[in-house]
Amino acid sequence: MRNVKSALLALHEELGRLKLLGEDTVFVSDETLRSFKMYFQSSKSLQASKVPSPKVASSPVKKVVVKPVPQSPLPSIPKPEIFELPPGNKEEQWKWLRNRVLNCSVCKENVMPGKQLVFGLGSLNADLFFVGEAPSEEDALVGQPFVGDAGDLLTKILQAMGLEREQVYIGNVLNWKPDAGAGFGNRAPTKEELEFCGPYLKAQIDIVQPKLVVALGATAVNGILGMDKKRKLKDIRGQILEYNGYPLMITYHPAYVLRNGTKKTKRTIWEDLLVVMEKVQMPISDKQKRFFT
Ligand code: URA
């Protein structure tokens, strides 16, 4: 029962997070609906089967107190550390930075047991730098970005653009998977977490010097442009903006497509990426232009 309660709390938090990101629709599988039905039916029948026990004058009355499942407090994160990249070529600077992140005491304190820090990966000469949010469960297990389901979809998206993963660079606005408190589930990074890891992402972008940065989803945008709960992704996606002198495209996160994989959503993301391809002068075939129409 306690696990079900924790799961419902995690679900409640995740729905709140999606609402903040401007999503107003969620898709629920038949299997999940069946599980909910079974849970609620069994808790109803438990209540119905409670026969009042005969009153015995001397028996002490036990008061049952239902306590909320304890939630871990959000981590306290210090201000970001100020540093400069050492002189050297791209590879030397990247190795120095990776080493700094993997040994950063704040980062290490926030890694959940059994999980790893995740640093960006890819070509240091990439034209395109993709920015995600934070490592998923699978990513944090292996210490690499985008290896889970969202990663598989990102690989397919890149292939549709005519690219292999090794040709782009992929980084995140946060280097650890945020602890949701219940031992499972997701939580959005806090402002302090994003501010702490921000310089690590910025330094990776400065090393790669891409022709364009692609921010995937609202959390990535919060990490790059600063947290703004009023900002709506649908209002800022699809146009070439600017970040620190680099052209910036904002589009939806692949995980959004996994949750809401309508043709319309796929086409919207694809149109954003066609703008990206045009901006960095990649060849675009007629077939590519018509994807998801
Ligand atoms: N994995 C990542 O590394 N980043 C994301 O945003 C999602 C999954």
Radius of gyration: 23 Å
Number of strand elements: 6
If strands are numbered along the chain, what order do they take across the biggest sheet? 1-3-2-4-6-5
Distance between the termini: 47 Å
Give a quick rundown of the structure.
By secondary structure, this protein is of the alpha/beta class. It contains 12 helices and 6 strands.
What does this structure look like?
Helix 3 runs antiparallel to helix 7. This protein has a domain of 200 residues: Uracil-DNA Glycosylase, subunit E (3-Layer(aba) Sandwich), CATH 3.40.470. The longest helix is centred in the N-terminal third of the chain and has 19 residues. Strands 1-3-2-4-6-5 form a six-stranded mixed β-sheet, sandwiched between helices. The chain is of the alpha/beta class and 293 residues long. The chain starts with a helix and ends with a helix. The protein is built from twelve helices and six strands. It is globular and about 70 Å long. Strand 5 and strand 6 form a beta hairpin. The protein binds uracil (URA). Uracil binds next to helix 6.
